[in-house]
Amino acid sequence: MRTIKPILNSLVFKLFLCITLIIGPLMVVHIIYTHYAVEVVRNQVAQSNQNMLNIYMNQIDQSLEGVSNYIFNLSQNNTDLYYMQYNENFELNDYEEAKIRLFHSIANQSDFYTAIDSIFIYSSAYKDFINTQKFADTFLERNSAREEIRQLIADPPEQLMEGSWNIWKGAKNYYLLQYFNVNGVYIGAWVNMERLIKPFKYIDFGETGQALLTTTELIPITNKKFIEEKQINLTPKTKENYAISGNNDRFVLMREKSESGDFYLAALIPESEILERLPYLQRISSIITLAAILFFLFFIFIMRKIFLEPINRIVSAMKKLRKGDLDERLPTYRNSTEFEVMNATFNHMISEIKDLKINVYEEKLNLQRAELKHLQLQINPHFFLNSLNIIYNLATVKEFSLIQEMSKCLANYFRFMFRSNSYFVSLEDEIKHTENYLRIQQLRFPETFLYFVEVPDELKKCNIPPLIIQTIAENSIKHAFNFDEQLEIHIKIKQDEDSGLIHIKIKDTGDGFPEDVLYSLKKNESLTNSEGERIGIWNVKKRLTLLYGESSKIRFSNEQGKGATVQIWIPKDLI
């Protein structure tokens, strides 16, 4: 939501919104008008073709009804059918004469019913099949169809209903078939459904238009390949007398159901053919669309030259300014008076900001230097008091040799402190100083304190802040030392392989940080109190932040069975 709000409030968005509100309604009216005109023409074309389908379907139904009446009358009134039934009293000559008469009768009628392929009579008693043959082009095709019908009638399946026109799928073709059963004598007619659709091949449906027959479930009977290639859905839901179907090529689909048989007659008219009949409307639509596009492009060009480019230059300069680039200036271009004033004002403002920021930055550096120096000086009185206390204790027990060695160590210690006025010292000097301090503590507690230092030679010349290692070691002695158990301090320094930083690890074998102290350290909370306790840890963290910022890292933890652990990561060779 925060990202969307500035976009909605931008000048560019508002300009485009205004022009959209002007052009948008005109385009909507144009689209509605075009859609309405197309719908009117589409309805007219669909209605015209629907009427044609209705007329042709009525002709088919009338032809089928005429054939139905003929074969029904033949089954009821022709006495020669009795000779086709089995009777041991009939002579063979009578049977043959009756069969000839029946053949001539159906042959004469088949010429009258041109919509039918064949009229047949089948005697189940004698397994004899007679039929007219005015279908197919070759003898093999006629014989194949004849055998399919004969085998079907010899044992009609349950779904083949007597007295109705049934759709039956043969080996290669669909057939429309009707029959009547008179005591084992079947009288019927059939037609290859491809013939029913042939007259439509001479009707102009366009280059890709088609007429086809379907079952009552709208499964295509003819032109199956065309339906699959064009991915046409023959069962769309629509309230109109037509439907639009097809993926790539769109077709207007119309259907008409037969009253005599369980099939549909359907027509597919390419929508492109319909729209081609609207040349004038298409010209107007194209001109309006082209004019709107040209106007929109011209508007974008004008807005870009007059408004958007100057605004984008100002916005780009502001983004660079926000990133801290104070050297960015807006170039001088011929532009509107308002933008010239804005550019000059912007350049003058950046110059003043740059001068002001330089002054503030210098004062901040001086303040940081003073604060860092103060933090380093905080170490001196803290350790000085501890040193006096150690000498006092040794004088009390009259350990003069230890007093001499300790005095030498203290002299070296304070010599390092007094000369360490810079913000960085070499790692080698810091380690010597820390070992000097730890040796003082070891002289004080010879049986209960040990220390170990591990540092590679290649890192000894690196620069680090002074007193950070000695301060952590001093904190370990102060809070982890007791007379009951021996205390060990391990200092290990290496270069981190992944980040390249110097990794300083200081751990002891004491009881570790208390839970409340460890929680405060992880939360970066101050641990100092009115007595100045734990000021060393706060001092180290503060100095690392001032010197390195986010480039350094310090981590406090307790290792089970090993006591407190402090890990420090600082950049290598900062200066």
What does the model show?
- The chain has 575 residues and is an alpha+beta fold.
- The strands form four sheets. It has a five-stranded antiparallel sheet with strand order 2-1-5-4-3, with helices on both faces. It has a five-stranded mixed sheet with strand order 11-13-14-16-15. A four-stranded antiparallel sheet has the order 6-9-8-7.
- A hairpin with a 4-residue loop joins β1 and β2.
- α12 runs antiparallel to α13.
- The longest helix has 67 residues.
- The radius of gyration is 53 Å and the shape is elongated.
Question: Features of this protein?
Answer:
single chain; 575 residues; alpha+beta; five-stranded antiparallel beta sheet; five-stranded mixed beta sheet; 16 helices; 17% strand; elongated
